[in-house]
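explain this:
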Amino acid sequence: SVERLCHVDGIGPGKAVAVAAAFELGKRVAAEDGVGKMPQMDSPRRVYMNMLPQLRDIRHEECCVLFLNHANRLIGKEMIGRGGLESTPVDKRVILRRALDRKASGVILVHNHPSGNLTPSQEDIEITDRMSKLFALADMPLLDHIIIGNGDQYYSFKENSIMPIHR
């Protein structure tokens, strides 16, 4: 944050704003680069690697949704919720509308746990179940829900066999 950068020797408020802006620009370029090339999201590890630049080192929870075509190639991604240290609000109707607008064939939820604890909360499990049911009605599967922790860590509902299947 700008406030933290100001505590570094030799960085005043003006320079701190410029450095923070450069970090944000880098995140946006990294995020757009993945969408432009339509990478295939065929494994939780690929999803993790795609989302790490956007969700790394954030001290609050953010939830993103990845929209995929029939070949599981990324056709769009969007940050759909910003929260506090332990949760973030997610409106499933908004996500469904955005997926329908993009003519997505599948969806993956991704959010971070700033604490580094990858264990899904009860709320994480419940929203995954509700989203899976909703998307099944639209014949558009929720393919996975991935939690990103600190460093080289992630948790995939699919890999851990707790991804609900609704048809």
